[in-house]
Amino acid sequence: MRSTPVLHPPETIVLDGVPVTYTVRRSPRAKQMRITVSAHNGVVVTLPARLKRYVNPEEILREKKLWLLHHLSTITVPTPPTPLADGSIIHFLGHELRIAIGESSGRQTVKVVENELRVMLPRDFSGDLKEVVKLWIRSEAQRIIGREAERMAPLIGVQYNRLTVRDQKTKWGSCSKRGTLSFNWRLVLFPPKVIRYIVIHELCHLRHFNHSQRFWSLVEHHDPAFENSIQWLKHHGMRMEGDLR
What we know:
The chain is α/β, with parallel strands linked by helices. It has helices at 57-63, 65-74, 129-156, 192-204, 213-222, 226-236, and strands at residues 6-7, 11-15, 18-27, 34-38, 42-48, 89-92, 95-104, 109-113, 116-122, 162-166, 173-175, 180-184.
């Protein structure tokens, strides 16, 4: 059985007056120490699980201080998520929705009414509001992305075997050689044109399982403004997830 990486609680170090929050990760597959910086995971110090000598992560971070501060200045590292509550703002299809909580006499329901996401909860509700909202969004993601894939597949001239919506951490979508399309549920937080681009991108892989010129020409044929969506994702993709992490 393969061992899984071990994550330690986040810690903070001050480098040249800049507070840097980092997480130490011990991985059985890592062969050497390394530091990674990403908008989604922040600063992660990965140590081999079988490292024999003691290593102080702070010493590693101080040694790579200039490199680390430079990379942090080029990305937006998300702040720790906070619990959702009545009045919280989330994004859906590129728009801001304010959560409005009401009392339900029966089961819980979630629906969009103008600029509100109305969440009706039973009086004795004791669960996590965030999980209720995320469950609804994932259900909407399956419906919206599935509908777009069904609409575009015949136009592109392809067929897919299965479509799944998952909690992917590093990809917005993927396509397998067996014809399975997988999409990140967070896509429905984005504007429809961006959702459409990701769906077209993955469907085009069913004809060209690469990123060749033919592939990009096919994408452009069905989405002439696809480069705008790519730029939008680079600038806004991770930030719109907000407190739904």
